[in-house]
Amino acid sequence: MNLEPILKKYDKGGGASRFHPVMMFKVLVYGYMTRTYSSRMLAKALRENVMYMWLSWNQTPDFRTINTFRGSRLKDIMEEVFMATVKMLAAGEIGLDAWTEEWALKDGQRALEAACGERGGVLKRVLRGA
Length: 130
Fold this sequence. Notes:
This protein is mainly α. The protein has 9 helices and no strands. Helix 3 packs across helix 5 and helix 6 packs across helix 9. The chain is globular and about 40 Å long. The relative contact order is 0.11.
C-alpha cells in the first residue's frame, strides 16, 4: 500500500514527530477493523490489549495525539486508504488466516458490510469496481 500521502505531510518541518505515522496508521486501521472508533478507547487498548501493543511497538500515544493524527493527517485521504485496503483484501494481496477466510466465505459481502459499519457505501463502490 502506498503511504506516501501520509508521509509527505510529515516532510514540512517543524520538528520530529514522537510517533511514527505508519505506526499510528496501523493502529487506526486495526481499530476500525475491530470496531474501536473512539480515540479514548484506542488509547486504552494501546495500554491494555496485546494486539494493539504489538502494532504500536509498545508505544502509547495519548487520545489527543490519536485524534489529532486522524483529524489533521488523515482527513483528506482516509476514504482513499480505506478503499485501497478493501481492494487488497478482495484481491488476496493481504493475507488472512484460514479461520478468517472461512468466515468471510460463509457470508461474503454481508460479513464485510457488518465489519465496515457506516462505511458500507464505500465498500459497495469498491466491490462494484467504481
